[in-house]
Amino acid sequence: MEKFLISCLFLIPAGVSCQDSAKVTNHNLEVKMTKPGEPGKKFTLDITVKDISTKRPIKDAEIFAYHTNHKGDYENDSKTGIAKIHGSAWSDERGAVRFITIYPRGYNDSPSGEHIHFRTKASGYSGGGTDLSFWDFKQKQLDYNNPVITKVYLETLEEKNGELFGKAILYMKKN
After folding, report:
1. Does domain 28-174 match CATH 2.60.130.10?
2. Taking a C-beta distance cutoff of 8 angstroms, is the pair 41, 158 a contact?
3. Could you tell me the CA-to-CA distances from 90 to 1, 21, 143 in Å, in that order?
4. ∠170-132-99 over CA atoms, to 5°?
5. How many Cα atoms occupy the beta-carbon half-sphere of 119 within 13 Å?
6. How many Cα atoms sit within 13 Å of 174 on the Cβ side?
7. Which residue, 116, 98, 97, is CA-closest to 106?
8. pTM listed for this prediction
9. What is the pLDDT of residues 87-108, one digit of tens each?
10. 3-state SS, residue 55
């Protein structure tokens, strides 16, 4: 009998790695989550994956990301149930990963509530889900001195030449 991992809005069969996405090959540090011409504002997100206790970078962490399109819809694939805008990246020795995508929209075209979902996996660490909430960042609701593994900590969000660029920290906890 096949087991399923239930995540926010889709099912991933147990034993299927996040890397099964057609957009990812050979443990990429950087992943393009959208196809050319995808509507929306271009957004590049650089994340550093760190151990929550030591604050040291984690190498070879698999980070799967997905989010809504420019209208606030996931546009899930009818066969896999996976959101159209998704991808996996693996951290390097500095804990660095990069997602090249578009800026997500809040559900149902809401001007607020923008977020990105992440699923994490690394040897010796407990995997799981975490989210980056742009609202938390804009409202200054993140406690950077007392991080938790259920949030991604956006440090900067800047616009340059009509594109957005962000830097964030994602924490993981040892088993």
Report:
1. yes
2. no
3. 30, 13, 26
4. 70
5. 19
6. 7
7. 116
8. 0.84
9. 999 999 999 999 999 999 999 8
10. coil
